[in-house]
Structure formats: structure tokens, C-alpha cells
Amino acid sequence: MVIRRARNEEFDAVRAFYHAVIDDMAHAQYRPGWEKDIYPAPDYLQAAIARGELFLGEEAGQTVAAMVLNTACNDSYADARWLTEAAPGEALVIHTLCVRADRTGRGLGREMVRFAIEEARRRGMKAMRLDVLKGNVPAERLYPACGFRYVGTIPMFYEDTGWTDYELYELALKNTCAGSGDSL
Q1: 144 cis-preceded (ω within 30 degrees of 0)
Q2: For the chain, which residues make up each domain, given as ranges?
Q3: Tens digits of per-residue pLDDT, 108-121?
Q4: How far is it, in rounded angstroms, from Cα 106 to Cα 113?
Q5: Are strands 62-70 and 91-99 parallel, antiparallel or unpaired?
Q6: Phi/psi at 110 (5° precision)
Q7: Which residues lie across from 156 on neighbouring strands?
Q8: For residues 182 and 174, is the Cβ–Cβ distance under 8 A?
Q9: Does domain 2-183 correspond to CATH entry 3.40.630.30?
Q10: Contact criterion met (CB below 8 Å) for 128 and 148
């Protein structure tokens, strides 16, 4: 899989990709709670593309995975007991990571996370952080398998889910190296 930044002219295709993923998940056993044009919202996707934060995973020229990487986070992150001291802007956050249903089980999610970890290191981040809707079992398995540690569960508000419980995960980068067991 080739992973690259999305380009501004690809907004419609990116939006269609996320809609297809949401359709794929409609009857799945585990769903992240996303809704078309609510999360991820079109303005969120456009802004992420414009800032160079939206990454696409492609196979044979077809988008099979996507994610946003930035330092933005839910306000409730301030209430969490993170394992790594990191000021705002020192932790890279993974958002909207998804893989097409017909491509799951092939390690593409893990490959996207590995790319995100290397991007965080390249930027000199102290940690990587993310939240997962409680009960999203595939995500709850993926991140620990990639070296992330469960930090806790806290209630958070998002437009698509309202107030609900989210599990927080973190990967310390400050004292890790590319070949260590801590990072894949």
C-alpha cells in the first residue's frame, strides 16, 4: 500500500470514500458511530486536506484506507491522565482512521498506524494519542497491537455520538526508537 497526503482536488473522492466506509459499517457488528456529513463533516475533511493532514492509503490507485493526523483533540483530553507529559502541540493525534470493509484483515490498519508513528517521530512529537468509541472492538485490538497503551475511559461529546464513553490510548515516542518493540 502507498500512503500519501490527499490533494485539494480530491475532496469529492475523499468524501465519497468516507461515505462508502460508513455504508460498509452500517451492518457491521462493531461500528464507530460515524454518520455521513456529520462525522467526518465535509468542512472537517476540506480543512484537513488543505492543511496536509489527511492521508490516503492506496492499492493499485484505489483508496482503501484514510486517516487524519494533527495535534487537535477533544476538549475532554484535558481531563485524561496521560502517561506522557506533553504540552499542546507535542502529541500527534490519529483521527478518522478507517479501512474499506473488503480490505480488512490484511494489516492495512496496522500499516496506516505504523506510518502515523513514523510521521510523529519525524515531527519530533513526544507522544501519539487517540480515542476510540467504547465497544469498537477492531480499534480496541489494533492500537494495543501497535504498541499503544490504554489510558482510561472518559465521557466525551462528539456531534455524531453525543455524550458517550471513549477509550483513550497513547504511545510514548520520547524514549523510543524505530526498531524498538514499543513501536511495532
Answers
A1: no
A2: 2-183
A3: 999 999 999 999 99
A4: 13
A5: antiparallel
A6: -60, -40
A7: 164
A8: no
A9: yes
A10: yes
SS3 157: strand
Please report how many Cα atoms fall inside a 13 Å half-sphere around the Cα of residue 102, on the Cβ side: 7
Amino acid identity of 115? F
How long is the chain?
184
Contact 54, 17 (CB under 8 A): no
Cell reading at 107: 494489516
Cell of 43: 468542512
Amino acid at 114: R
Contact 72, 40 (CB under 8 A): no
Exposed/middle/buried for residue 21 (C-beta within 10 Å: 0-12, 13-18, 19+): buried
* Grid cell locating 124: 519530533
Question: Which cell numbers in the block locate residue 57?
Answer: 492509503
Residues 6+ apart with CB under 8 A from 59: 1, 2, 103
In this predicted model, what pLDDT tens digit does every residue of 4-63 receive, in sequence order?
Answer: 999 999 999 999 999 999 999 888 777 777 889 999 999 999 999 999 999 999 999 999
Query: Cβ(168)–Cβ(149) under 8 Å?
Result: no
Record the cell numbers describing residue 143, joined without a space. Answer: 492500537
